[in-house]
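Ops channel
N.P.: pipeline sanity check, posting one input/output pair.
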């Protein structure tokens, strides 16, 4: 594979002796549930917007965009690219849950900037099966935002394509730069 973990993998014996990250999630959820109060929110986002963004852990979209719980649908994937599954989610968001605006957010330093479709070929050699999905890697960040906006604007499944805007988030400054 072209991508390797940055951190060494602990031994299996050490893994079984300490809680995993998912064990910590479950524990944190139990603590959260003690004070949780159902706010009576609907699944329909208050701001009637869907945000499509990269899954990169450096992007705190709620803080960066001034969003609160219940304000927006946030759809994340590798690269924040608009794929068939993204269109599926956006279609449900609009047609069933009332969103009207779409913000697309890519970012500087994206991992997809360093990948190619060779990733799929290497994966196929490793596991013996070719993935059905495309990597959707890119070399031109602004160009990929434009391509994603075009995919949204031309989808026959989406009702509202008049308020679609694309941005690049700078992971060093926290600022959005709009792409026209």
């Amino acid at each position: 594979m072209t991508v390797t973990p940055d951190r060494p993998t602990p031994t299996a014996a050490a893994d079984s002796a300490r809680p995993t990250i998912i064990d910590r999630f479950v524990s944190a959820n139990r603590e959260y549930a003690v004070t949780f109060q159902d706010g009576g929110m609907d699944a329909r986002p208050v701001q009637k917007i869907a945000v499509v963004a990269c899954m990169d852990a450096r992007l705190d979209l709620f803080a960066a965009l001034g969003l609160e719980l219940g304000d927006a649908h946030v759809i994340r994937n590798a690269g924040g690219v608009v794929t068939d599954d993204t269109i599926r989610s956006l279609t449900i968001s609009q047609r069933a849950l009332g969103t009207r605006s779409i913000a697309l957010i890519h970012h500087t330093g994206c991992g997809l900037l360093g990948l190619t479709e060779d990733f799929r070929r290497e994966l196929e050699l490793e596991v013996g099966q070719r993935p059905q999905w495309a990597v959707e890697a890119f070399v031109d960040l602004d160009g990929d935002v434009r391509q994603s906006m075009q995919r949204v604007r031309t989808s026959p499944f989406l009702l509202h394509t008049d308020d679609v805007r694309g941005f690049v988030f700078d992971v060093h400054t926290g600022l959005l730069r709009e792409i026209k």
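N.P.: looks fine end to end. The longest strand covers residues 101-107.
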